[in-house]
Design goal:
Rhopdopsin 7-helix transmembrane proteins; three-stranded mixed β-sheet; two-stranded antiparallel sheet; 5 strands
Amino acid sequence: MLGLNGTSFQPDTLQLTGIPGVQTGQAWVALIFCILYLISIIGNLSILALVIQESALHQPMYYFLSMLSLNDLGVSLSTLPTVLATFCFNYRHVGFDACLVQMFFIHTFSFMESGILLAMSFDRFVAICDPLRYATVLTNSRILAMGLGILTKSFTTLFPFPFLVKRLPFCKGNVLHHSYCLHPDLMKVACGDVHVNNIYGLFVVIFTYGVDSTFILLSYALILRLSISSGEGRWKALNTCVSHICAVLVYYVPMIGVSVMHRAAKHASPIIHTLMSSIYLFVPPVLNPIIYSVKTQPIREGIVTLFSSKRE
């Protein structure tokens, strides 16, 4: 049902598809999503609790890891209401304004993750290339300022999106191809002039993903060039960064895949686009705690101690 809003027709509610073409096996899909949410929430909360409780982990590297875990919780919780409603309760409608709010938070947390990964690469660069000044460069006040800067940058760049969408009329139906609200999905059902949305969206992507990924690559190039002269030394330096490298790959590879699919495979099956977007949103929050628990000894030992003490 369409309601008149000013001079634009907008749907009162939007219909969430879930996974297009998958009408059977919804219970299995719901179970998979519940398991992913459970792993993500428990894993990231465990890392946050560990860093807070263990004074030995009150160091810049683990503060940035806490930011990453907190952000991953935000990504999971921003998609959780509509995903569980769609697959567990078969409730597939979401209010138009609620959809815009969810879209804003999903994209904001996603863009913040890119900034946090950049900050973590700077942390590794200072720790390896200038270890004697590590504590004086990355003070608590500077870490807090970096975190607030990442939050401010993501919030301000994404803030116009809901208003840019709200000004558009919707005349191509109200059915979305996901179980959550994304800006590209909303553009598919909007009509009118969407050039401003597309141009601003491209600007935000380049300003965020493009700049952040460039500086992440630059930081590792400098680590390899400036820190160690021998091949064995370079290997040891990279070995201290393996957790962060894995986190970068887990985040950027699906993101690049989604971007390529959106632009180069527009006519591919909707289920492919949905699965790629789901991998992009659900895999990093699930894998990041596992990666750092497995590859970072203080985190691994701390989590074992944390859970063993709860059993006693």
